User: What shape does this take?
Amino acid sequence: MTKPDRWVIGNWKMNGSLASNADLLEAVRGKPESSVKVAVCAPFPYLNQVQRALGGSDVQSGAQDVCEHGSGAYTGQVSGAMLREFGATVVLVGHSERRQFNGETSELVAAKAAAALATGLTPVICVGETLTQRVAGLAEATVAAQLAPCAVLLATSSARVVVAYEPVWAIGTGKTASPAEAQAMHAFIRTQLTAIEPSAASVSVLYGGSVKASNAKELFSQPDIDGGLIGGASLVAADFLAIISAAG
Ligand code: PEP
Assistant: This one.
């Protein structure tokens, strides 16, 4: 069985400017060579800048959302083919902020992941429970229910899918799941994935939620954590570079 790839993916969220991106991209582009796959997921208007700045480097570019449809009357949406034209190779789907603020359901997230795969993008399927769900003992059931609509695409395309476990209570809050808490959920996710498709044992399962240079190494050394999805710290070049080296 192939071992899962190790990834560090930056999620810039709705941050950046042409000037600040230029400095950040120059620094990230200069990262030391390693086997860790690195990507930055920028807001749509900056994809062209990211493509030009990272061209010829091994840092991949990505987006933070994709439309579930291929083309047509979907005002404000962006298709997978458009993302590919701007050099994107990965795309986040089902980030908790989109589930929360845009009402995205797990069925819609699965449709977006399928659209990403159909256009040659790697979908990073984000799952995670709220604090209320965790306190009620529903963390695993929540994550299992979020993954369930993706079963068909996991069964057919697991080699091209990445999963990110991001407990909602840890995103942007400074509260990180302890390495043991994160590992327990990652092991559960691995069990869920392999129950759907045995070869899904090689799906990379990333942890996200207030990962910093200071806690990355311990999180990433857990057996079922294959790297991280990084929000705030991906906007600070020195921090992002330190997190990449912690994953190596
Ligand atoms: C995220 O937005 O995916 C994230 C993990 O954010 P942060 O690292 O800031 O918690």
